[in-house]
Fold:
Amino acid sequence: MSTFKPVRISFVWDRENFQKAFESAYRYHYRNSARRYIGWLFVAMAQFGVVAALKKGAVGLLLFSTILLLYWYVVKKQLLKRRALRFFENSSLKGSRIVLEATEEGIVQEGELTSWEQIEGIVPSEEGIMLYQEGKEYYIPSSAFGGIEEMSRFKSLAKKKGKLYV
Structure:
Protein backbone atom coordinates (compact mmCIF):
# COMPACT_ATOMS: atom_id res chain seq x y z
CA MET A 1 0.00 0.00 0.00
CA SER A 2 1.34 3.40 -0.99
CA THR A 3 1.62 6.22 1.51
CA PHE A 4 1.83 8.88 -1.20
CA LYS A 5 -0.33 11.86 -0.37
CA PRO A 6 -2.09 13.11 -3.54
CA VAL A 7 -1.01 16.49 -4.94
CA ARG A 8 -3.93 18.90 -5.25
CA ILE A 9 -3.86 21.26 -8.21
CA SER A 10 -6.40 24.07 -8.51
CA PHE A 11 -6.57 27.17 -10.71
CA VAL A 12 -8.95 29.39 -12.67
CA TRP A 13 -8.68 29.15 -16.45
CA ASP A 14 -8.58 32.89 -17.16
CA ARG A 15 -7.06 35.08 -19.85
CA GLU A 16 -3.80 35.56 -17.93
CA ASN A 17 -3.23 31.80 -17.57
CA PHE A 18 -4.20 31.29 -21.20
CA GLN A 19 -1.62 33.85 -22.36
CA LYS A 20 1.07 32.23 -20.21
CA ALA A 21 0.12 28.86 -21.67
CA PHE A 22 0.37 30.24 -25.21
CA GLU A 23 3.82 31.76 -24.60
CA SER A 24 5.11 28.61 -22.90
CA ALA A 25 3.81 26.29 -25.63
CA TYR A 26 5.03 28.57 -28.43
CA ARG A 27 8.56 28.69 -26.97
CA TYR A 28 8.65 24.94 -26.38
CA HIS A 29 7.43 24.07 -29.87
CA TYR A 30 9.75 26.57 -31.50
CA ARG A 31 12.79 25.18 -29.69
CA ASN A 32 11.87 21.54 -30.29
CA SER A 33 10.62 21.45 -33.85
CA ALA A 34 11.89 21.49 -37.39
CA ARG A 35 10.16 24.86 -37.94
CA ARG A 36 13.11 26.62 -36.35
CA TYR A 37 15.32 25.39 -39.20
CA ILE A 38 12.88 26.88 -41.68
CA GLY A 39 13.35 30.15 -39.79
CA TRP A 40 17.08 29.85 -40.21
CA LEU A 41 16.52 29.32 -43.94
CA PHE A 42 14.46 32.53 -44.03
CA VAL A 43 17.25 34.39 -42.23
CA ALA A 44 19.86 33.06 -44.68
CA MET A 45 17.68 34.03 -47.65
CA ALA A 46 17.20 37.49 -46.19
CA GLN A 47 20.92 37.93 -45.60
CA PHE A 48 21.71 36.96 -49.18
CA GLY A 49 18.95 39.30 -50.29
CA VAL A 50 20.42 42.19 -48.32
CA VAL A 51 23.93 41.55 -49.69
CA ALA A 52 22.64 41.27 -53.25
CA ALA A 53 20.48 44.37 -52.82
CA LEU A 54 23.40 46.40 -51.53
CA LYS A 55 25.72 45.22 -54.33
CA LYS A 56 23.24 45.77 -57.16
CA GLY A 57 21.12 48.51 -55.66
CA ALA A 58 18.03 46.29 -55.91
CA VAL A 59 15.64 47.94 -53.50
CA GLY A 60 12.86 45.42 -54.27
CA LEU A 61 14.99 42.50 -53.11
CA LEU A 62 15.95 44.38 -49.95
CA LEU A 63 12.28 45.13 -49.25
CA PHE A 64 11.27 41.49 -49.84
CA SER A 65 14.00 40.24 -47.48
CA THR A 66 12.92 42.67 -44.78
CA ILE A 67 9.25 41.69 -45.11
CA LEU A 68 10.19 38.01 -44.94
CA LEU A 69 12.09 38.51 -41.69
CA LEU A 70 9.38 40.65 -40.14
CA TYR A 71 6.75 38.04 -41.00
CA TRP A 72 8.78 35.16 -39.54
CA TYR A 73 9.74 36.82 -36.28
CA VAL A 74 6.86 39.22 -35.54
CA VAL A 75 3.71 38.82 -37.63
CA LYS A 76 3.44 35.01 -37.57
CA LYS A 77 3.42 34.83 -33.77
CA GLN A 78 0.89 37.68 -33.47
CA LEU A 79 -1.46 36.01 -35.96
CA LEU A 80 -1.27 32.72 -34.05
CA LYS A 81 -1.80 34.49 -30.73
CA ARG A 82 -4.82 36.41 -32.01
CA ARG A 83 -6.41 33.22 -33.34
CA ALA A 84 -5.74 31.43 -30.05
CA LEU A 85 -7.24 34.30 -28.02
CA ARG A 86 -10.39 34.22 -30.17
CA PHE A 87 -10.65 30.50 -29.46
CA PHE A 88 -10.22 31.16 -25.72
CA GLU A 89 -12.87 33.92 -25.67
CA ASN A 90 -15.40 31.49 -27.20
CA SER A 91 -14.39 28.56 -25.00
CA SER A 92 -16.81 27.08 -22.49
CA LEU A 93 -13.91 26.65 -20.05
CA LYS A 94 -13.26 30.40 -19.86
CA GLY A 95 -13.38 31.51 -16.23
CA SER A 96 -13.94 28.02 -14.85
CA ARG A 97 -12.04 26.51 -11.92
CA ILE A 98 -9.92 23.50 -12.85
CA VAL A 99 -9.26 21.05 -10.01
CA LEU A 100 -6.88 18.12 -10.48
CA GLU A 101 -5.37 15.58 -8.13
CA ALA A 102 -2.13 13.76 -8.96
CA THR A 103 -1.98 10.28 -7.45
CA GLU A 104 0.20 7.18 -7.89
CA GLU A 105 -2.34 5.88 -10.44
CA GLY A 106 -2.61 9.05 -12.52
CA ILE A 107 -4.31 12.43 -12.62
CA VAL A 108 -7.91 12.68 -11.48
CA GLN A 109 -10.27 15.40 -12.70
CA GLU A 110 -13.94 15.40 -11.66
CA GLY A 111 -13.75 11.74 -10.71
CA GLU A 112 -12.23 10.69 -14.05
CA LEU A 113 -8.77 9.11 -13.93
CA THR A 114 -6.14 9.70 -16.61
CA SER A 115 -3.50 7.04 -16.01
CA TRP A 116 0.21 7.82 -16.25
CA GLU A 117 0.40 5.54 -19.31
CA GLN A 118 -1.99 7.88 -21.18
CA ILE A 119 0.22 10.89 -20.47
CA GLU A 120 2.92 11.38 -23.09
CA GLY A 121 5.04 13.80 -21.10
CA ILE A 122 5.28 16.66 -18.65
CA VAL A 123 7.51 19.63 -19.43
CA PRO A 124 8.25 22.23 -16.73
CA SER A 125 8.71 25.86 -17.77
CA GLU A 126 9.30 29.15 -15.98
CA GLU A 127 5.58 29.90 -15.67
CA GLY A 128 4.23 26.43 -14.97
CA ILE A 129 3.99 22.93 -16.39
CA MET A 130 2.88 21.70 -19.81
CA LEU A 131 1.18 18.31 -19.76
CA TYR A 132 1.00 16.41 -23.07
CA GLN A 133 -1.64 13.74 -23.60
CA GLU A 134 -2.75 12.07 -26.83
CA GLY A 135 -1.72 14.94 -29.12
CA LYS A 136 -3.15 17.63 -26.83
CA GLU A 137 -1.39 19.90 -24.40
CA TYR A 138 -2.57 21.26 -21.10
CA TYR A 139 -1.08 24.09 -19.07
CA ILE A 140 -0.85 24.09 -15.30
CA PRO A 141 0.34 27.42 -13.84
CA SER A 142 2.79 27.43 -10.94
CA SER A 143 0.17 29.18 -8.81
CA ALA A 144 -2.09 26.10 -9.11
CA PHE A 145 0.00 24.27 -6.54
CA GLY A 146 -0.28 24.90 -2.80
CA GLY A 147 3.38 25.91 -2.74
CA ILE A 148 6.79 25.04 -4.08
CA GLU A 149 6.82 21.81 -2.05
CA GLU A 150 3.63 20.63 -3.76
CA MET A 151 5.04 21.43 -7.19
CA SER A 152 8.26 19.57 -6.32
CA ARG A 153 6.24 16.54 -5.19
CA PHE A 154 4.33 16.61 -8.50
CA LYS A 155 7.57 16.80 -10.49
CA SER A 156 9.06 13.96 -8.41
CA LEU A 157 6.01 11.81 -9.07
CA ALA A 158 6.15 12.56 -12.81
CA LYS A 159 9.87 11.74 -12.84
CA LYS A 160 9.22 8.49 -10.97
CA LYS A 161 6.62 7.56 -13.60
CA GLY A 162 9.08 8.42 -16.39
CA LYS A 163 7.01 11.30 -17.75
CA LEU A 164 9.05 14.38 -16.77
CA TYR A 165 11.08 15.96 -19.59
CA VAL A 166 13.49 18.73 -18.68
